[in-house]
User: Fold 4-hydroxy-tetrahydrodipicolinate reductase from Allobranchiibius huperziae.
Amino acid sequence: MSERIPVAVIGSSGRMGSAAVQAIDDATDLDLVGRFGHGDPLGDLGGASVAVELTTPDASPDNVAHCVAAGVHCVVGTTGWSPQRLQALEAQLVDHPRVGVLIAPNFAIGALLMMAFAQRAARFYESVEIIETHHPDKVDAPSGTAARTASLVAAARASAGLVDVPDATRTDPHGARGARIDGIPVHALRMRGRVAHQEVAFGAAGEALTIRHDSFDRVSFMPGVLAAVRAVGDRPGLTVGLEHLLDL
Ligand code: NAP
Assistant:
């Protein structure tokens, strides 16, 4: 029988953190050895070999840096990891070559499929826009999933030789056309009653294709969290995206 993995959760009182605590508690091959909230000293992470980090974009880099320095593998669901932050983390990991950090902008398997399908469809459509919807307590916009989808779609368009999405808008003083990420329009809705939803809308002459994913409950993220916890120790260095663990 393989050894049980001791796991800590940082941000354990939050919406995602408490769902992760429950999922780890329920898993027969994992031991929950530490729960950490805002202001709790992380120390040796309660003896964990893997920490699950689910806090805020402001807090996450310091928490992850602490885990890496302590030699603890880290599964990160917190969004807001800019290229600069990723670079700093990679530089730190050079000095800790045995430590693995897996940053997953989205743990839901369906969301990963949505991104993969959108990437495949991108070269066939002149128009594409992304509409993400989340609960109104989310502090950052757009979602990490929307930003990553936009980057993947933009890269697929570029390698197919597609230029800018067609758009004759000349005046938009209120930003009604949304944000642009790598040239792809992204719209963020914040609505009470929703959890995490995304639509990738494609258009070509005379037709439309919409790829949509809905997370109705945070339990949808937990199989991905647990798969990452089990795998991260065997993946030294930085991995961005849970899709690297799955054969999509
Ligand atoms: P949340 O309910 O606001 O929970 C965040 C928790 O982190 C709170 O309990 C907060 O405590 C705690 N916290 C803040 N700073 C901390 C620190 N320095 N050390 C330890 N704990 C700290 O947010 P959530 O909905 O759970 O989301 C958490 C993160 O996961 C967000 O970035 C969200 O976008 C992301 N997310 C990712 C996925 C995915 O699939 N990757 C899915 C959903 C959400 P206080 O309230 O006391 O400050």
